[in-house]
Each structure stands twice: as C-alpha cells, then as structure tokens.
Amino acid sequence: MSVTETSAAPVASGKRELRTAGMLGYGCAQPSKVVTSEEIAARYDLTADWIIDRTGVESRRVLDVEKGESLLDLVAASARDALAVAGRSADEVDTVIVATITPDNVFPAQAVALADAIGVPQRAIVFDLSAACTGFVTALGQAAAAIESGRSELAVVVGGDALSRITPYDDPKGAPLFGDAAGAVVVGPVEHGGLGPIVGGYDHQYRILYSDTADGNVIRMRGRETYSNAVARMSEVILESLAQRGATLDDVALLVPHQANIRIVQAVGEKLGISSDRVSTQIADVGNTSAASIPFALGREYAAGRLAEGGLIAMAGFGGGFVYSAITAEIEGIAP
Hints:
Layout: E1 20-29, E2 33-36, H1 37-44, H2 48-55, E3 59-62, H3 71-86, E4 95-99, H4 110-118, E5 125-129, H5 135-149, E6 155-162, E7 180-190, E8 194-195, E9 199-202, E10 209-210, E11 220-221, H6 223-245, E12 252-257, H7 262-272, H8 293-303, E13 311-319, E14 323-331
Parallel strand pairs: 4-5, 4-6, 12-13
Antiparallel strand pairs: 1-7, 2-3, 6-7, 8-14, 9-14, 10-11, 13-14
Helix pairs in contact: 1-2, 3-4, 6-7
C-alpha cells in the first residue's frame, strides 16, 4: 500500500438497537485536612454562626498539600469504591469521564491519570469535561448516550474538584463556601428503569459567576443574582427532565441538587414542593465542591442506606457562566 492510500475501517451493517443506561455503583472521597468555620471566621473577623447561618457549612475538607495530596487521590478513591459497589473491575471499563474545573494539570487530562491509576485498559476513551458545578450531570448524560448507542459497555463517571485552588480568600462572603471532594458512579446497560433524558441550557451572564485569568482564576460571584438564577434554572430543568420521562414530582424518591449552599438547596426543594426528607443535603461537612457535589451526595446516600429501596432520583446542577442541567435515574435497590 502506498503512503497516499488508506484502508477503510469495517462498517457495521444494520441498525444499532438502543439500550437503556443506568447507574450501577457509587463512591465518594474527601481529603484529610478539615477546616472548620471557626477557623475561617477568625480570618475575617466574623463568627462561625454567621457563616453557618448563611451557607450551612460547618466544616469543609481541603487537599493537604504538605502531605502531597492531589485531586487524583480523590477521584481514584471514589472510582474504585464505585466499581466495588457495582461488582465490576477496572479492566471492564472502556470509558472514563472526569468532570472538573480544577485538574491537577492542564494536561494530560485528569481522566488519563485516573484511568492509569485504577488500571483501565489503554484502549479506552478517556477525557475531562468542564462545565463547572453542572459538570457531573453533563458527563453522566454523555456516558448514558455512549452506553445507549452501544459505543461503550461500561463507563466510570467522576465529578471531582479541588476548589481550594481557586477559592477567593480575599472575599469573606465567598471563601467560606468551598471545599474539595470527588464522587463517582459506574454506568452500564440495565434492563429496567435507568437514566432518563438530560435537559439543560446556558445563559452567558459572565460577570455574575465567573473566573478571570487576570484575577488569578479565583471564583467570583454576585450572591443574590446567583441565588435567584440557580433556584429558578434548577427547578425548571428538573420539571422538564421529569416531564420528558413521563414522571411527576410525586414520583421522585430523592432529589439531589447541586450543593451550592444550604439556602439554595432548601429553596429548590421548597419551590418544587418536595419535602425536606426527600432532598439530599450533604453540605454541612463538605461545602460547595462544584462538579463533585452531586456524585458525592449519591455516594453518601448509598452509604447511609437511602438507595436500598431504589426509586426515582432527580439530579440538577447549576454552574458558572451560567450552565445548568438535570437528569433523572430510576434505580433498583442497592444496599451498602
């Protein structure tokens, strides 16, 4: 064959049958270093009660750089746990997606380091996805599409962020919000239930919730505008995602919104009329962990036994810029 010739790849005949994709396993991880709201308050001449009342964050964990902790440690631990819960092994995985805005390095992708760390075969599709606090939901939708179409057999989807790297320490209102964490799910074909359509959108209101390279890429936000937009947009896409599934709010066993702060989490539940016992609230000892917040909450809910009876889960994210999305999942009962 000459250098100008190419060999055509075989083309599959017939139509692919769409499958149903579902979540099979859950995991979550935090770093070792605890930072209390008392410690944060002391830096800014505030009180811990002031911080807790406005954010719901009593403590958060951050990477201990003196011990050499990295985001890879968190995403790998959460992925291994999710695979163990699913009863699957890394050598079965053919897709790895890491949703993050704070990778250990610009490149190679965090997903490359993760896949290598947990032993995923090298013939896998691995990539990072950047969509801020709605990154995990967006990544979950991409993984579901790959499973449904038959382009993937088993995917690991991780949301992980080390927001301590971009926390605005000069802002006493913003600094108390953020922490570091990771959460993961395993996605594969299922016979019943599974993931529904993903619904989302964007609104380029850049100067309300953003980062700027000239400002060191730290998180900047205008609180009131962010609050009102987050509550409205997450509520909208949750309703749309349920409608596209043919479900209603009464069918929701558990609502897992992005854990931005306690007021936003509670406001979304109240706006939708979902009782607090059906709303996952994990912010008290975690903080806002961006793309990690939803999968971390799922991992916590699994460990607490709240997924043992199965049912319909509604998840919604809202992040900088703005981007927002929601997806539902009907899961079979899975106990720790």
